[in-house]
Amino acid sequence: MANVAVYNMEGNEVGSLELNDAVFGVKVNEHLVHMAVVQYLANRRQGTQSAKNRSEVRGGGRKPWRQKGTGHARQGSIRAPQWTGGGVVFAPKPRDYSFKMNRKEKRAALKSALTSRVDDSKLIVVDELKMDAIKTKRFAEVLKNMKVKKALVIINENDKNIVLSARNIPGVKVALCCTAKNEETDKIEVNSTMNVYDILKYDTVVVTKSAVATIEEVYA
Question: How far apart are CA 129 and CA 210, in angstroms?
Answer without folding.
Answer: 10
